[in-house]
């Protein structure tokens, strides 16, 4: 008997052209590798039932709930428009309403071919599945909006990616899977009714307040701009590089989605690129705000006919909304930097102070995460300077900056210990270091040893706490451990 989950299907009540219904494409021997019991609980799902053979059959895509579907979307990939992408290796099982009343999608990734698969096999390899599991859960623990990982199963089958690799399926949980590219899909077909139905659905789901605004569709656009500006500011603040900021990987919900060739900075370098397919550096760390703005302009274009019946008016409204992006992003980013520096008040000179630190870090290859973590103790006084200054190729670059910083700190009444506590709650010690992630994946894929994966996952669940015994996970790579390139793994 299939598992009993009370799935709702608000998305698949939209017209047929929004998705394709699917039959299972069973795999040989599903085996549960990891179940996120805390997330299951949050979703109101029975973890025991999910871990049962019937549950695992669903998590592998062998036994699908009625209404399962692959969703249609389009997107700009590296700037080039592709009118049809869609869930080529994913399917929506359905929606559940979680314990807080929020609607969440459950989606399988790697569950087999769909009408959107084009040349692909619809499958996923174990490495990329575990990578998404680790990094998305780490992002959640860092307090950054993200899709979540509910489960990972292996399929008992191989997938071919230049070599044979173990196949796997990830169960992803998302506030929704509506992307900028979903709007583009209908707009590119001249299907204005489709754009409108999608916008109404998105408003009901993500911007209920917009429904009663003077211009609901403009309010939706403004909502997406605000959420995405805040999101990408948070990425920068933890040193995250998404790697494939195509418009189909840009959500309406404001959650981070699609952990492909993503990576975290070790040494601070705004031009840093890891993704093997990003040869022009379009999605470099420091380019992310600019690219986001470009993506949001594509959303505005798709929504244009809904913004106003008069084209000039619609364009003016879109331009005004997009003009709000820069200031919103700057405010979120600078606000975050102030918190990272232990500043509770806003002063005009703060942007310069923060930028001076970042410049010194870039010039001296200082580790991004450890520098800010080091400042937490240094905020108590110069006795704490040894750790952060040692991260700079030329430590005197830190000393010069620290003098300015202390003058600025002294201008605020915050008690030093309270400041240190606040800084430790915003400057993580543990991020998913690329070399640690790769080592965990290699052990799992090459020798079916999941111990490193489990250990790393546990450490990353508490990124702001010192975890004696696990200090090694906080350290940057030795030169021979450095990860130079990351891959999509599709
Ligand atoms: P992504 O790079 O993961 O954002 O995927 C971009 C597009 O390629 C989406 O339409 C995916 O569904 C599709 N895709 C990626 N991998 C596969 C695969 N193995 N089989 C079929 N489609 C895929
Ligand atoms: Mg994608």
Based on the model shown, name its key terms.
single chain, 490 residues, alpha+beta, 3 domains, six-stranded antiparallel beta sheet, two-stranded antiparallel sheet, 12 strands, binds adenosine monophosphate, binds magnesium ion
Summarize the structure.
The chain folds into three domains: 11-177, no CATH class; 181-333, no CATH class; 343-490, no CATH class.
Would you write up a description of this structure?
- With 490 residues, this protein is of the alpha+beta class.
- The chain has 3 domains: 11-177, no CATH class; 181-333, no CATH class; 343-490, no CATH class.
- The chain is built from 17 helices and 12 strands.
- It has helices at 37-42, 47-51, 53-59, 126-141, 180-188, 192-206, 216-238, 288-307, 311-323, 325-341, 350-363, 368-378, 386-389, 395-410, 416-424, 434-447, 451-460; strands spanning 19-21, 31-35, 69-71, 75-77, 80-82, 90-97, 103-109, 124-125, 148-161, 163-174, 240-241, 263-264.
- The longest helix is centred in the middle third of the chain and has 23 residues, at 216-238.
- It is globular, with a radius of gyration of 23 Å.
- The model has no long low-confidence stretch (mean pLDDT 97).
- The structure holds adenosine monophosphate and magnesium ion (MG).
């Amino acid at each position: 008997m299939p598992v009993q989950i009370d799935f709702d299907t608000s998305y698949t009540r939209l017209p047929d052209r929004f998705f394709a219904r699917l039959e299972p494409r069973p795999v040989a021997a599903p085996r549960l590798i990891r179940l996120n019991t805390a997330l299951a609980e949050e979703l109101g799902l029975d973890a025991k039932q999910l871990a049962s053979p019937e549950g695992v059959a669903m998590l592998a895509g062998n036994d699908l709930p009625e209404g399962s579907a692959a969703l249609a979307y389009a997107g700009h990939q590296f700037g080039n428009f592709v009118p049809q992408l869609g869930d080529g290796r994913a399917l929506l099982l359905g929606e559940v309403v979680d314990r807080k009343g929020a609607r969440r999608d459950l989606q399988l990734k790697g569950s087999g071919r769909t009408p959107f698969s084009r040349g692909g096999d619809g499958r996923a390899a174990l490495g990329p599945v575990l990578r998404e599991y680790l990094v998305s859960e780490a992002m959640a623990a860092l307090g950054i909006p993200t899709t979540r990982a509910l489960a990972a199963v292996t399929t008992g089958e191989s997938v071919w990616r230049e070599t044979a690799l173990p196949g796997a399926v990830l169960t992803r949980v998302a506030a929704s899977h509506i992307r900028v590219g979903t709007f583009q899909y209908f707009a590119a077909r001249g299907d204005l009714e489709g754009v409108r139905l999608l916008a109404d659905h998105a408003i009901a789901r993500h911007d209920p307040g917009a429904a009663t605004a003077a211009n609901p569709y403009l309010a939706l656009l403004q909502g997406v701009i605000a959420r995405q500006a805040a999101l990408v500011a948070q990425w920068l603040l933890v040193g995250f590089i998404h790697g494939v900021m195509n418009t189909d990987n840009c959500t309406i919900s404001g959650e981070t989605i699609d952990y492909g060739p993503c990576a975290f900075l070790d040494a601070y370098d705004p031009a840093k690129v890891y993704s093997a397919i990003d040869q022009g550096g379009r999605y470099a760390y420091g380019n992310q705000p600019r690219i986001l703005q470009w993506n949001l302009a594509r959303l505005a274009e798709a929504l244009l006919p809904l913004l106003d019946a008069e084209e000039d008016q619609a364009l003016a409204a879109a331009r005004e909304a997009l003009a709000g992006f820069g200031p919103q992003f700057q405010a979120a980013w600078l606000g975050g930097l102030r918190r990272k520096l232990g500043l509770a008040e806003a002063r005009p000179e703060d942007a310069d102070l923060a930028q001076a630190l970042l410049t010194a870090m870039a010039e001296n290859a200082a580790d991004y995460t450890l520098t800010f973590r080091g400042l937490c103790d240094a905020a108590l006084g110069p006795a704490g300077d040894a750790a952060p200054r040692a991260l700079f190729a030329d430590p005197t670059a830190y000393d010069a900056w620290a003098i300015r910083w202390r003058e600025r700190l002294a201008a605020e009444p915050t008690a030093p210990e309270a400041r240190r506590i606040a800084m430790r709650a915003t400057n993580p010690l543990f991020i998913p270091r690329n070399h640690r992630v790769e080592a965990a994946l290699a052990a799992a894929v090459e020798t079916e040893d999941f111990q490193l994966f489990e250990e790393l996952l546990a450490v990353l669940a508490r990124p702001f706490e010192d975890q004696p015994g696990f200090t090694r996970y906080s350290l940057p790579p030795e030169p021979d451990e450095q990860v130079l390139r990351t891959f999509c793994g599709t």
